[in-house]
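Chapter review: from sequence to fold.
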Amino acid sequence: MKDTAQRPPFMDKQNISHDVVEYFKRMILNGELNPGDRIVETKFARELGISQTPIREAMHQLSGEGIVTIVPNKGPVIKELQKSDVFEIYSLRAAIEGLAIRIATQIASDEAVEELERFYSEMKVKLEDPSVDTLLQDSLYIHQSIIKLSKHERLINTYESISFQIALVNRILGRESTKQKEVDQHLELIEALKERNPDQAEKVMRKHIYRSYREFIELDEDKHWEDGETLWF
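The token string follows.
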């Protein structure tokens, strides 16, 4: 009998295609696969001890999500993000998260807002903890919490559909961040929720995301991009 001890745990599950997708996403986020890398289906099928079918199905899904490109006579290749990709991801975030916080300021319970405020207070405490290197995951939790507070199912699903691309942009473009910066920049979101002013909250969120976008991209040399900014800022 073939030894399967070294196989990833999803090998024994029924929903292999889904888990293969997650496997490749982890490899990309971990830097084991990089933009421009070719995915050789036979190689990965052999290494994972599965047939090529779930690998092929996973590649089609990743292609649909804009993560890989199917190149004729070459096969799946990890897509290299262009400036236009980053613009689309962040402008879409501005629209989605702006609407989410607008709704959340109107329907979120006081208890839910207070709970998120407590989380933020715990986040601040980590500033003094030398064992904590980054607060990026804490920042992400705040954004995800605001999305959930909207209770808008289609909005939530849309956000989840681009969440990996957001993480991918962060890794590939090597965003530099500090713990102090994450704490300082996310206070405005907590305050916006507490003030319960939908118009102001949406404006704060859009500016927050726009600021992150500007950290990745320098647009001054390209008038087309400058014009594009006004569509969502």
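Two observations follow directly from the output. Residues 9 and 19 are 9 Å apart (CA to CA). The chain has two domains: 9-78, 83-229.
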